[in-house]
């Protein structure tokens, strides 16, 4: 029973010895058998055919090569991001008052201008009425001030006439110097009266403006009692409950706009130049929903921590199927590039560990070309780095190296 394992061990040892220490003789023996087989086959062939077959057998390795032609494809910048509402506002009170309106519940749809919280007016209506009364009182003083100004102008005219007469009489010796001086003083007094009347009229107009400003302030205070929706959207929270005391800054409601909606991602600095505002983009949400839109914003400043640039894509959301904060895989279209569609099995590594393919070059000599991966799909991978036309070895590429002569069999690439 132990004889068979012993014989097996001897045969394995002999095989290893021949493969390691007598490799050249073993190969020579194999070539001798191949030559005998070739001689047996060549006996039935013409001399020219035998010579061609012999040369091909000695110098060429059979491979299958794909005649590939580069095609223009769209390459995309792929990001991870999330959805974000186009607008979201916390509507807060601007004055102090008690809520007197029934609350609206979160999830309700509101139009721009819809009432969210109505506050109690209190004494604000009375204050407004008082301000209006003061404004009317100030306006009523305008005719009186204007009449005083006209009276002052008439007195000045009278004083100037008297002054002119007194000066002529004084020059002819018919009036005393005292009368002339008195008429001049009357002129000066009349001029001062005009300035005083003008000042009174300006003060009256200033009173009107102050009363008008007070009325506007009272009206603005009353307008603050009606807190309305700033835009069309959804309530993200309940509005303030009836009876609640609102203070300046107290939250009334949160309104969110989801149509359209934004997709926000961050582009690495190595690919930021491939993204432009207006480029078409698409995304797949975690729910499987696919959406399309365009780039509407690209940050000019990088995040100091991640060295990435924020990008926003605006997409329609008419049916409100997209929610705020959902994760998404975003693809942004960039300039197209020439690439070859090759089987994944055609990719190989050279001695330096560089990814590439082996192609059939001039005189059927194998050449290695490094390639770059653009994207993969079910029927192969798109690669760059090759000439527009290339004969890529797809079968047997692992058994040849650069500089080896091959006997290729060609196949056309599927369009």
Automatic annotation (TrEMBL):
Residues 128-169, 201-228 form a coiled coil. Residues 267-334 form the CusB-like beta-barrel domain. Keywords: Coiled coil. This is Multidrug resistance protein MdtA. Pfam families: Beta-barrel_RND_2. One of its GO terms (cellular component) is efflux pump complex. NCBIfam families: RND_mfp. Belongs to the membrane fusion protein (MFP) (TC 8.A.1) family. InterPro entries: Beta-barrel_RND_2 (IPR058792), RND_pump_MFP (IPR006143). The gene is mdtA. One of its GO terms (molecular function) is efflux transmembrane transporter activity.
């Amino acid at each position: 029973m132990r004889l068979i394992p012993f014989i097996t061990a001897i045969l394995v040892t002999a095989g290893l010895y021949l493969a390691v220490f007598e490799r050249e003789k073993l190969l020579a023996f194999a070539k001798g058998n191949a030559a005998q087989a070739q001689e047996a086959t060549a006996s039935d062939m013409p001399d020219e055919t035998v010579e061609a077959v012999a040369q091909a057998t000695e110098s060429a390795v059979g491979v299958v090569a794909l005649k590939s032609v580069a095609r223009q494809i769209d390459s995309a910048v792929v990001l991870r991001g999330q959805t974000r509402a186009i607008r979201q506002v916390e509507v807060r009170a601007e004055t102090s008052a008690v809520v007197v309106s029934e609350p609206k519940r979160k999830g309700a749809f509101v139009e721009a201008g819809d009432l969210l919280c109505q506050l109690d007016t209190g004494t604000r209506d009375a204050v407004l009425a008082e301000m209006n009364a003061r404004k009317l009182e100030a306006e009523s003083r305008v005719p009186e001030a204007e009449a005083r100004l006209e009276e002052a102008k008439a007195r000045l005219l009278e004083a100037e006439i008297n002054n002119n007469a007194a000066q002529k009489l004084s020059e002819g010796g018919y009036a005393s110097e005292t009368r002339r001086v008195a008429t001049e003083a009357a002129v000066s007094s009349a001029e001062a009266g005009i300035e005083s009347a003008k000042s009174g009229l300006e003060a009256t107009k200033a009173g009107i403006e102050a009363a008008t400003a007070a009325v506007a302030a009272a009206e603005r205070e009353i307008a603050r009692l009606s807190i309305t929706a700033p835009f069309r959207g959804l309530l993200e929270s309940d509005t303030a409950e009836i009876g609640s005391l609102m203070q300046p800054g107290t939250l009334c409601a949160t309104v969110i706009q989801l149509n359209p909606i934004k997709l926000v991602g961050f582009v690495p600095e190595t690919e930021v130049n491939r993204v432009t505002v207006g480029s078409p983009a698409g995304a797949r949400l975690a729910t499987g929903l696919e959406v399309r839109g365009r780039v509407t914003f690209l940050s000019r400043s990088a995040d100091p921590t991640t060295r990435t640039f924020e990008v926003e894509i605006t997409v329609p959301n008419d049916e409100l199927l997209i929610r705020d904060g959902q994760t998404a895989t975003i693809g942004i279209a960039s300039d197209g590039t020439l690439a070859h569609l090759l089987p994944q099995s055609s990719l190989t590594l050279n001695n330096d560990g560089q990814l590439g393919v082996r192609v059939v070059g001039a005189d059927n000599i194998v050449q290695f070309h490094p390639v770059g991966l653009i994207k993969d799909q079910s029927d192969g991978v798109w690669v760059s780095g090759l000439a527009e036309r290339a004969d890529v070895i797809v079968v047997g590429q692992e058994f040849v190296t650069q500089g080896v002569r091959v006997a290729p069999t060609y196949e056309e690439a599927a369009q």
